[in-house]
Amino acid sequence: MPSLLGRTIALTESRRAAELATLVSNLGGRPYAAPAVREVIRRDRGPALAALERVVAGEVAAVIFMTGVGARALFALATEAGRREALLSALARLLVVPRGRKALAALREAGVTPGVVPAVPTSAGVLDALAAWDLSSRAVAIQLAGDENAVLVDGLRARGVEVVEVPLYEWTLPEDCRPLEQLVHDLPTGRVDAIAFTSAPQVRHLFLVAERAGLADTVAAALRDRVLTAVVGPVCGAALKERGVTPAVEAEKDTMGALIHAIAARLGQA
Question: What pLDDT does residue 69 have?
């Protein structure tokens, strides 16, 4: 089994921070927790309610669930609106597609059986899974995942699909930004050996905090030259490249566990 060799691994994940830190410790590393995002339900429920009504009315051919958090939020919204049973009935007739295992688990909790499960849990994987379905000139509802939707939305529109966006939550900075602020100062000093990003907003929020401290360029240089950067998925990697940093490690599988093992494997080659 690969080892992290006692190295310090910065973790910007929030929701599963404890689980990720345990994995780092179990692989012989030192976790440095600096949560970079917080998921909050959107105050404006109007767009999501309008999309929900279109789904219930059978005006869409398929519904894509990007995240477990978003799937549960949609079911909660439907319950509040007195439309949960109508939503479940509609989903039983429509093509239901979970992007990954978290969304799949949330659907199973609600008793919903997906029609397609992508082989690769990414937006590109969803597009590949839908390639066999003729959705041209039809509508497809997408439960949005923060701001990580461009690949899927653009890909569907290129196929002539009407995209019905279902915005349920958004990502903001953590309530307590002190760990992230400290990380910004520690990255250029050699106190951090590697950093693991599991979503694009984590990258953007790290640099937002760095900009506030006047350290954006310094942090970018540290990530290029000193700190091993690792990402889950191409969208996350693209956010890092926007800052002039090419990820050194990209997990073969779109999971956090695969990411930490990939970091260990890369450190073992050094």
Answer: 86
| Partners of residue 229 on adjacent β-strands | 195
Q: Which amino acid is at 183?
A: L
What strands, in cross-sheet order, belong to the sheet with 95-98? Answer: 95-98, 62-65, 139-143, 162-166
The answer to whether the beta carbons of residues 197 and 229 sit under 8 Å apart is yes
Please state the pTM of the whole predicted model: 0.74
Beta carbons of 34 and 187 less than 8 angstroms apart: no
Q: How large is the angle between the packed helices 256-269 and 17-26, nearest 10 degrees?
A: 30
Phi, psi of 121 (to 5 degrees): -80, 60
User: What residue ranges in 173-215 does DSSP mark as E strands?
Assistant: 194-197
pLDDT digits (tens, 9 = 90+) for 80-94: 999 999 999 999 999
3-state helix, strand, coil in the chain (%, to 5): 45, 15, 35
